[in-house]
């Protein structure tokens, strides 16, 4: 932990200033979550995002046919002494371009409404304390902004990049750590308990087998990106305190530097910090690179030759294959 300890001493005054931003938010947040207009707004958002049915096989259209009754039922269950019990997510495997697969969890429509209603209330709380260095799943930010920031740092002379890819990030989050960090900012036991029940809801596989989960948060849940950002909030803070030129989007992040030793020191620090919170890196996709010698991939694009940016080769090949398929001679459609 020598590198991590040394970098923590770089700017003690900045650490104090950053920590002073942390606030505890009191109040009956659950009451705000279950307000009828908040639930209806949540459903409108869920409807806009479309999505398949969950384990109960109730589609968006079927849910909307009995909307008032369904929303009233969610409100009643959320406020009952027995507490709302989230159903397990329906797990499907999505094929990846590299030949592997990615597990996706599909909550029921009703549970997606509850997750969205919760996000609408607690999301702004975290926006007040989150660091400026990350761009994923935040209002007014996104992948383009993250890429733009990296390009700006490269233009300022940063030709060394430490890139990182967390191994099985969404599957390996510690529930205990996540709930402790979540509760530091959301001082409402009912909402913390609701998040705990989401984490423990389990999954139903494609062959109909229900499985419990001890770690992780399912990809596909509306609340999952927020929980992931809460889990990595300490990483953002430590990188900012150490003065690293750090840019993160979800579990993909890079550090740019104008000297190799700075990039290597950042690489060592972040590896130690991730190990301290129970995560590890995919070494095939992580390491220190030089932009004039190596191509660096970030968010589907390649940085190369110090100043150029282009889609990664796999994305270009996929695009060409789609064009060939759509314009094949046997399709019988005029160009």
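Q: What amino acid sequence fits the structure above?
A:
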């Amino acid at each position: 932990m020598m590198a991590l300890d040394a970098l923590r001493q770089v700017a003690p005054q900045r650490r104090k200033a950053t920590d002073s931003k942390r606030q505890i938010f009191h109040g009956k947040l659950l009451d705000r979550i279950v307000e009828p207009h908040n639930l209806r707004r949540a459903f409108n958002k869920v409807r806009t995002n479309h999505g398949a049915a969950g384990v109960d096989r109730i589609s968006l259209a079927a849910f909307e046919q009995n909307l008032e009754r369904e929303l009233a039922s969610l409100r009643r269950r959320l406020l009952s002494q027995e507490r709302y019990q989230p159903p397990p997510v329906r797990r499907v495997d999505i094929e990846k371009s590299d030949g592997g697969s990615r597990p996706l969890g599909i909550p029921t429509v009703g549970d997606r409404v509850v997750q969205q209603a919760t996000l609408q209330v607690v999301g702004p709380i975290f926006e007040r304390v989150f660091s400026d260095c990350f761009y994923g799943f935040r209002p007014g930010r996104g992948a383009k902004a993250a890429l733009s920031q990296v390009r700006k740092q490269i233009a300022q002379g940063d030709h060394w990049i430490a890139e990182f890819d967390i191994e099985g990030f969404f599957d390996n989050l510690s529930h205990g750590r996540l709930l402790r960090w979540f509760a530091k900012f959301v001082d409402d036991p009912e909402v913390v308990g609701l998040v705990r029940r989401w984490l423990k809801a389990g999954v139903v596989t494609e062959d109909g087998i229900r499985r419990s989960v001890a770690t992780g948060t399912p990809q596909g849940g509306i609340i999952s990106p927020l929980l992931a950002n809460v889990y990595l909030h300490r990483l953002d803070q430590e990188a900012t305190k150490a003065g690293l030129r750090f840019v993160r989007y979800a579990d993909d992040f890079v550090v740019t530097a104008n000297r190799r030793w700075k990039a290597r020191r950042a690489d060592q620090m972040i590896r130690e910090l991730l190990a301290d919170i129970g995560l590890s890196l995919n070494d095939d996709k992580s390491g220190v690179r030089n932009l004039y010698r190596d191509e660096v991939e970030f968010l589907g694009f390649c940085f190369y030759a110090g100043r150029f940016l282009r889609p990664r080769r796999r994305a270009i090949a996929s695009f060409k294959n789609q064009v060939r398929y759509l314009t094949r001679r046997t399709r019988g459609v005029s160009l």
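Q: And what stands out in the fold?
A: The CA atoms of residues 166 and 281 lie 4 Å apart.
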